[in-house]
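Bench notes, afternoon.
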Amino acid sequence: MKIFCVGRNYIDHAKELGNAVPEEPVIFMKPKSALLQTNTPFYYPAFTNELHYEVEIVLRICKNGRSIQENAASQFYNAYSLGIDFTARDIQGELKKKGLPWEKAKAWDNSAFISNKFVELNEANLKSPILFSLKQNEKIVQSGNTKDMIFSFNQIISHISMYFSLNIGDLVYTGTPAGVGECLPGDKLEGFIGEEAFFNLDIK
């Protein structure tokens, strides 16, 4: 199982971090060990002093494929959920200054959280925009709408498949909207798709 992530896929998020708006999807990966297992506590990592949340819609791959055409890409994912791409922002900042890869800031153990609840896709809801949000200590800190993505689900899947084989069970984190910020031990993070609660996660 592979975890693909898309960076800077919402214009306002790219701007809030001072990044250029990309001309093609920015892809990075997390190892399987980055996935926080269900019912496992999330502990604030000791190596960072600036842990950020990034709430994202996550696609579930349902079919093996490579070099997928954009107009056929919807056949390769069949459900979506809500997750968090945790980022050690202080470490990422130092790595970016040196022109080094981001793995230490993005791909550490338990840095990828996902709800155990999925929405199955069908013809009726496949083209509908998805509204999602994140609360931190009962206050909304991020609100997103997939219609505002720079690159659509199909564009993302097609682009990834140019370079990597997609396999059943792979996950694709599709990017975070504006509003990313710091979280601390004791914080409670709650994720919603529409009005429906998808997760509650305590930072320990």
